[in-house]
Amino acid sequence: MEMNHSSRYCYEPVLRWDPEVEEYFNKAYGPDHFARISKALTRPSSYSCIRVNTVKTTSDAVIEKLTKILNESEDGLMKLVQSDGSSSPISKCQIPGLEYVVFVKGSGPHRIEYGSGIENTPKEVLVSRKCAEAVLRGAQVYVPGVLACTAHVEKGDAVAVCVAMEQPGDEGDWSVNMTRGTTLQVDMCRNVIVDPFFSERSGLYIGMGTAMLSRAGMFRVLHGVAVDLNNRVFRLPSFHNVLEGEIFLQNLPSIVAAHALDPQKGERILDMCAAPGGKTTAIAILMNDEGEIVAADRSHNKVLDVQRLSAEMGLTCITTCKLDALKSVCLPNTPSDSTTSVTGDNSCSITSHSELSSKEKMASDASGRSEAEKSCEENASTKQPNGGDNVSQSEIRKSKGRLKNGRGRTQSQGGRAGKSKGFPPNSFDRVLLDAPCSALGLRPRLFAGLETVISLRNHGRYQRKMFDQAVQLVRVGGVLVYSTCTINPSENEAVVRYALDKYKFLSLAPQNPRIGGPGLVGRCEFPDGYVEEWLKPGEEEMVQKFDPSAELDTIGFFIAKFSVGPKD
Ligand SMILES: C[S@@+](CC[C@H](N)C(=O)[O-])C[C@H]1O[C@@H](n2cnc3c(N)ncnc32)[C@H](O)[C@@H]1O
């Protein structure tokens, strides 16, 4: 195939969707609007959003430090992000209440001349789609992301970087049709690149860089930078390892979700799907680190991430536990209803709610948690040296084993996640359910072909089950916030409809700030007869739907806030 530079070496990706999903989204948003959303998803936001840890510092101090870092950076970061070279790219968020959020403007898409600044035809590196998405957010091209490259690449050579996008197979599957280490063949006489997917991979050129390793090195070593991408389609500084503990890179809607919960000092809050802890730490800061946030997640290692982030940010009101959100409620009087903790000397204390006297039970019901449970959790969170909390007996057995056998993997990582058996009904003032979702709002995204209408519905089913648990854990008069990072109505408006129809004691509550757009009103009938109900007129302005193609230029995100009325 003839090498057509202008169509291959530009950045104009077209997001591929499953045809039925595309039809569904076209119905939901209208074809033009969905086309705009789809295009916006292929690009990063034009700015990095930084949440300042106000427990440790101020946004003014952070702006000063970041300006210095950008100005003094050897990579010329300030020049990299300044599109017009004049005004400072760093500014404080102007939305009332969000002054502790700092924006760093980036620029792009830039047209990168193929082979600009070099004499010969550049050599080429093909990276995986995941690698490219990270690079578009400001990361370097790391070794594991490189799939193929032309022959004879030497360290220091100029290379063009393109994306090896998934292609459809014969059986409805998708693959890159390439094994790592493939040599891209170029017929120099005819100026032809031997890529069977030449045209399918066009429009996916993400920049020019300098090879940091030879071709052999790129496929031999396990980590490190493969290409220093110094001429990029999108220029956004990476704040990896910058001002650790003082700032946290977080999407604006995620920060808004923490505000929607409206946490108050001294309250007891559950973050049901907390890892890596972005919203947990945002909530803790809004509470000025006073009160108790239980940060739960199903994944042990991810719980450790929350512990690490909390420690790095110097936040002490966060306790963590490993807990399946589908089993978050432990009913009083059931034998399994016990909370086990490991004390500082690794002996264990077990409190079973079924062992509580009826007086204690009443007190527990009234306050939401028993003194025994409190002290049990305190033991875990304060005495355990590595910060674990609600710990199961199997964990204790493992821990004893580890003591005998030396340090295990998790210990050497500096922590251990306590396993919780759940919490009694009505035991939290507020609950955040930031549900696992299809993540179809995250950007930049270069491929969306794997989700089907059935898988989209299944996400919604999973979220409804989690919601059923969450709603039981909030006390009467409390607040439940439900959020996702997807544009899929089955996981957003349809879950809200389910919640309001099933739990008559729930009502949508106003959110502050409200900077997202309205939700979708109506219903959708699918060709297979399935009917999905969305919001009713009047409800759309109560939720916040962040549209990636809107002026705010955020990820796609959805937030619904519920007030919990009397439950009987
Ligand atoms: C959207 S992410 C949460 C992001 C987090 N709230 C933050 O702001 O940093 C969803 C999380 O849900 C967790 N998860 C998935 N299924 C779960 C389950 N059944 N119970 C608890 N957590 C679950 C995943 O491990 C993942 O960390």
From TrEMBL:
The UniProt entry, under InterPro entries, shows: MeTrfase_RsmB-F_NOP2_cat, MeTrfase_RsmB-F_NOP2_dom, PUA, PUA-like_sf, PUA_sf, RCMT, RsmB/NOL1/NOP2-like_CS, SAM-dependent_MTases_sf
**GO molecular function (one):** methyltransferase activity
Q: Which Pfam families match?
A: Methyltr_RsmB-F (PF01189), PUA (PF01472)
Q: Does the keyword Cytoplasm apply?
A: no
Q: Looking at the keywords, is Secreted present?
A: no
- Specify the SAM-dependent MTase RsmB/NOP-type domain's residue ranges: 180-565
Q: Identify the stretch(es) annotated as Disordered.
A: 334-425
Listed A to Z, the keywords are: Methyltransferase, RNA-binding, S-adenosyl-L-methionine, Transferase
Q: Which residues form the active site?
A: C485 (nucleophile)
What are the Basic and acidic residues biased-composition ranges? 356-377
**UniProt binding sites for S-adenosyl-L-methionine:** C273, A274, A275, P276, G277, G278, K279, D297, D324, D434
Its BP terms in the Gene Ontology are:
methylation
Report the domain of life of the source organism. Eukaryota
Q: Which CDD domains match?
A: PUA_NSun6-like (cd21150)
Ranges of Polar residues compositional bias? 334-355, 378-394
Name the PROSITE patterns on file: NOL1_NOP2_SUN, PUA, SAM_MT_RSMB_NOP
Homology family: Belongs to the class I-like SAM-binding methyltransferase superfamily. RsmB/NOP family.
Instruction: Indicate what this protein is called per its UniProt record.
Output: SAM-dependent MTase RsmB/NOP-type domain-containing protein
